[in-house]
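Ticket #4471: structure export looks truncated?
Reporter: QA, pipeline team
Priority: medium

Steps to reproduce: submit the single chain below to the structure queue and open the exported record.
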Amino acid sequence: MRHLSHFLTVSIFILFLSFTASAQDFRKTYQLASGSQIRIGSISGDIKLVGYDGAAVEVVGYKEGRDAALVEIEESSSSNSLDIKPRYPRNCNCSASVRFEVKVPKNQKFNFESIGTASGDIEIKNVSGNLKVKAASGDLNIKDVNGSVEASTASGDVTVTGIAGSVSAKTASGDVNAELDRVEATEKMEFSSVSGDVNVTIPSSTGADVDISTLSGEIKTDFGIKVDESEHGSSSTARGRIGNGAIRLVLKSVSGDVNLKSGSLRAN
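Actual output as written to the record:
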């Protein structure tokens, strides 16, 4: 009986390992040239993208949930592009998510053409290049980026700090908080929320034509731009030029306060 018990234990353990292997995490590294396009997509799950001192792009996809074994990771890559996303079975009401953690060489510029998730938070830190980030439901936290940023979420907060470049940050339901180290835009930059506050800090040396508005909230700015309040409602506007007016800067909220502050260049 002792031998039989040992045999059953070993058999169960082997079956457990077999099941675990079928649902194992995705791990792969890629050698990409500078300027390569990177697209990371998730239907349900967080995405974390960080810069590091290595030479390769490293991607880990953590499959989570009851039906994790049913989810596959689709990937397409070349020397100048990378496209990764999960694939769920057709017509499957699956209880599964994929959480991506991506590391890229921090001193190498990339074109992050699409970093997005339908349901989950996105965190990006210490990368170089152009970023397009989008979530249907989740917070976006973007920090220390040398390049342009386009960030939007339908439901969640958008926070961008330590940015040296052009920024567009939008949310339908949530707050927008932005802090720019340098403004290198040549066109319009827009920060907006339908339901939430908008807080933006830019260097005092910035030149911009400023357009600030809220239908229900207060406007505050230390740039000396006159704030006009409606006599027959709760709306407020502020329009004016700072510096040479090199770019157009738009801040707006339907229901929330809007603040534009002056900051200094942050030391590295």
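Status: closed, not a bug. The export was complete when the record was re-opened. Leaving a note from the reviewer for reference: Confidence is low (pLDDT under 50) at residues 10-23.
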